[in-house]
Amino acid sequence: xxxxxxxxxxxxxxxxxxxxxxxxxxxxxxxxxxxxxxxxxxxxxxxxxxxxxxxxxxxxxxxxxxxxxxxxxxxxxxxxxxxxxxxxxxxxxxxxxxxxxxxxxxxxxxxxxxxxxxxxxxxxxxxxxxxxxxxxxxxxxxxxxxxxxxxxxxxxxxxxxxxxxxxxxxxxxxxxxxxxxxxxxxxxxxxxxxxxxxxxxxxxxxxxxxxxxxxxxxxxxxxxxxxx
Length: 228
What we know:
Layout: E1 7-10, E2 22-25, H1 28-33, H2 36-40, H3 56-61, H4 68-83, H5 89-100, E3 108-114, E4 117-122, H6 133-143, E5 164-170, E6 173-179, H7 182-190, H8 192-211, H9 213-218
Helix pairs in contact: 7-8
């Protein structure tokens, strides 16, 4: 905002609120430079109550509609945002460092750590290249399946897991992401041992899927898809 940039915020993602609970912080410089006539073009997307009382010209330019869906989504999102207001960045950073310390160096690497998001690169072994996004998409899908009929590495093979989708980070390399949502942060704050045990389970399954990648890929028809 100090650099006169618009800032987008959301009540979903980290806060785990309903999708499309979004809002904008607009710097004062842009507010003063934007005429009400331009705002009127947004009447299909905004209603007067979506804007603060400090913008009477903008509110008057919009059609007198209501946006009940947005109000309800934000009401739900604000509940978690307010409940987590006491958490600090240091807690998220401590979680990230403790999870990163659990990674098996031979085939999982923390490519980047940003407070509550760990971006992980995977490979079959220390002598193999890092997986590209197409292969990571397969691993991402296998996480959500019972793979015990193809490779059985104990109860974890049957555990269904959902994490952040693959993202391209280099020409032939991608990452999967472990993200700390507000519900997970709350669990970590209250019972860190239990929270880290759940993260270790994710890491264990990722490791086995990476090591056994070729076997699983050759036998995908035997995998048990998650129930609808």
